[in-house]
Amino acid sequence: MLPDDRALWSRDTEGRLLIEHCDSCPRWVHPPSGQCPQCGGPLLARPVSGRGTVLTYTVNFHPYNPAVPTPYVIAIVELAEQPGLRLATNIVDCEPDSVVCGMPVEVQFEQQGTGADAVFVPVFAPAGDAGTARRAPT
């Protein structure tokens, strides 16, 4: 973990996802960089809604990590706060073949490690209205 991305792997006291924000322009910035690429202003970790949409995804069947059961979904989620604000993540709490582009999702956190070494990995699960999404043409 790099110093600039510590906020992403933690969370605020209310369990919300933290993304860097520039108060000068105003603009959300991810991946974390510490300085706004638009105006050069300082960035501060701020909570976001945790809502987003699956932009694209793939289902992985290869067991790269024996601790992670296959199949699992790797996705790019576009957060609701700003067009183009995207996060690489996993989709959880659903069957891999139920994931579709455009599906609304909400953040959850999976704790990895304990004590001072604990990080909270943001993953996304289908939102309550996920049934309204349509499968992208192939």
What does this structure look like?
This protein is mostly beta strands and 138 residues long. It has strands at 18-22, 27-29, 43-47, 51-60, 72-79, 86-91, 104-112, 119-126. Strands 6-5-4-7-8 form a 5-stranded antiparallel beta sheet, with no helix packed on it. A 3-stranded antiparallel beta sheet has the order 2-1-3, with no helix packed on it.
Shape: globular
Share of helix among residues? under 10%
Number of helices: 0
Return the string of H and E elements: EEEEEEEE
- Structural class designation: mainly beta
From the alpha carbons, calculate the radius of gyration and give it in angstroms: 16 Å
Mean pLDDT: 86
Main beta sheet: strand number and arrangement?
Answer: 5 strands, antiparallel
Relevant terms:
138 residues, 5-stranded antiparallel beta sheet, 3-stranded antiparallel beta sheet
Summary, kept brief:
By secondary structure, the chain is mainly beta. 0% of the residues lie in helices and 39% in strands. The strands form two sheets. The chain has a five-stranded antiparallel sheet, with no helix packed on it.
SSE inventory with pairings:
Elements: E1 18-22, E2 27-29, E3 43-47, E4 51-60, E5 72-79, E6 86-91, E7 104-112, E8 119-126
Antiparallel strand pairs: 1-2, 1-3, 4-5, 4-7, 5-6, 7-8
